[in-house]
Amino acid sequence: TQGLVIHEKQLYESSGGYGKSFLIYGDLRGGHRQLALPEQYFAEGMTVFNNKLFVLTWKRGTALVFDPVTLAFQERHHYPGEGWGLTHNGRELIMSDGTAELRVIKPDDFSEQRRITVRHRGKPMPYLNELEWHKGLILANQWQSNHILVIDERSGEVLKTIDLTSLYPPSVRAPRTDVLNGIAYDPDSDSWLVTGKLWPRIYRCLLYTS
Q: What residues have CB less than 8 Å from 147, skipping those under 6 apart?
């Protein structure tokens, strides 16, 4: 899992790997539409905004745009550097690139508007990955950790760290199971879906962000 989002009661997921990347969506009981991406693309974070499904690619500097229902390709945009996580705040896209900075992106042409430096007690917090925006907060997976960071969108300050180590303890994980990655807010139940790379399950949680 690279990206995870709920939009209009549908669960969307992007999965990475060269020659293995795909997009899938369906209701919470299982996917019913899937699209394999060309082998040159390693799918990363994704979000649905203005009736468009935006998908980042890791090292190709390319954002792919699809119809969120048919998964038909619509257009592509380019950006410098790497693409990791993606969300939106209702006006703009917010993108991570593996550093401690989040890029605020104009959806129409993918131009960068500004950056948010994420800090905790004055220290930059690198390896920001999958993102989800909610009521002025940005929730971020931090690669190589079992933590979700709760970030103030305006200041970039980490307000809270949520430790999910006990959700799927490393001691019981299969050998190929990787890190925590994937956050999706479900407005119908006011709960969160979280998962990880090659995790066998998606977990529904109550995350107290305040």
A: 141, 161, 162, 163, 164, 180
Name the strands in the sheet holding 137-142, side by side, starting at the edge strand that comes first in the sequence.
128-134, 137-142, 147-152, 158-163
* Cα–Cα dist 101/52, whole Å: 24
* 168 to 123, 163, 194: CA distances (angstroms): 28, 11, 11
Predicted confidence (pLDDT) per residue in 77-132, tens digit:
999 999 999 999 999 999 999 999 999 999 999 999 999 999 999 999 999 999 99
User: What is the pTM (predicted TM-score) of this model?
Assistant: 0.95
d(CA 41, CA 82): 12
Is 44 within 8 Å of 85 (Cβ atoms)? yes
- What SS3 string covers the chain? CCEEEEECCEEEEEECCCCCCEEEEEECCEEEEEEECCCCCCEEEEEEECCEEEEEECCCCEEEEECCCCCCEEEEEECCCCCCCEEECCCCEEEECCCCEEEEECCCCCCEEEEEECEECCEECCCEEEEEEECCEEEEEECCCCEEEEEECCCCEEEEEEECHHHCCHHHCCCCCCCEEEEEEECCCCEEEEEECCCCCCEEECCCCC
Q: What is the mean pLDDT of each run of 10 residues along the chain (210 residues)?
A: 95 96 87 92 98 97 97 97 98 98 97 98 97 98 95 97 92 88 96 95 89
